[in-house]
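Pair request: fold both.
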Amino acid sequence: MSQKTLGLIHTSATLVPVFAELCNRFLPHVKTFNIVDDSLIKNTIACGELTASTSKRVVNYAASAQEAGADFILFTCSSIGPAVETAATLTGVPVLRVDQPMADKAVQIGKRIGVIATLPTTLAPTSDLVKRRATAAGKEIVLVSKLCEGAFDALMSGDAATHDKKVGDALKQLSNEVDVIVLAQASMARVVDTLSDADKKVPILASPQIAIEYLARQI
């Protein structure tokens, strides 16, 4: 069997080492390469939504990754998720949005599902994805969405402590209202590690590891 190649497409350079570590752990026999373009997320945030031109570029990156030899392609940013689904229909190899396996897992775990994000541009597509995956699974769910106001700006300005506190407080509050919590952004996962076991009343799902474990089963 020839060695498979996974192409990872990121909208932030900070995600490269996160996924490199996960790939080393769960996909040791798979070759990987990275494409990083932070203008994809910057343009999406600036416009307040995923635009047609950004979506087109997402599709082009998928084609480029396939041409570079990818047998599988993973987009690691949730905000561009809808464009990733379009790319999946136009690309000759499997294309995965990072939050799909997480959404499927959440739907399996509970009926009341909390979605938490620091950006409205991520909260909407992730919430929409969870609803659609529940429909696909034939399950009725109750979705509770929560936006951590100001947390993303704090993180971008270098104030990680404020970001972590805002996200942590929101997680504690949300855990009293739902059966399972979905983190809409991979960048929030490290906050979960700072919570005490008492604060983690329900499962809190982060997309990176769940996506890579899913790919490990597929590949």
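--- second member of the pair ---
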Amino acid sequence: MKVLALAIDIDGTITHRDRSLSCRAVKALRKLRIPVILSTGNISCFARTAAKLIGVSDMVICENGGVVRFSYDGEDIVLGDKKKCVRAAKKLSEYFDLEFLDEEYRKSEVCIRRTFPAEEARKIIDGMGVKLLDSGYAYHIVDEKISKGFALKYMAKKIGIDVKNFLAIGDSENDIEMLEVAGIGVAVANADLKLKRIANIVVPGENGKGVEQALKLMGLI
């Protein structure tokens, strides 16, 4: 398989646990001569700013696949239904004291601080057309059809690159579908066990070191 593009998570993959950016990852990504799509659970303005700072292409997947953008000056394309997520959050608020994050900026999902048991919450909102994702930094209530993999297939089709020619790198359970749809999926060493189980490759390095190892292994740098 020839790698023609890269989809890569941000938090925990090209950042350290404290969310500081890995300079090692940045240096490696700047050597690439293929399109790079940053893929994150965070909001659009965060992802676009990160793309500029890192020095990769402006294409981003945001809100766990609920929002995509093809250029810095382009428009956000909303793929997820936030109304369903709000209804589910309202249901959860009957059981837990919720602390919402970036509420006014999120266009496709609801983001909540990790202060309650995820599995119990998933049972409560089962059948409401949504799912609860754990990014390792926050919980995300997402339209059930939405994932980073769904968004990657959408973007790949639009830019004319077969999704199977993508390399995908991540660390969390919200990266699972992205690694599954890509031609090759790589988990860094600090990745969630669920992600490691479905990854084609698990590199020995954590965070930015793992990213560098993956790109070298694929002959991209």
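Observation on the second member. The CA atoms of residues 90 and 98 lie 9 Å apart.
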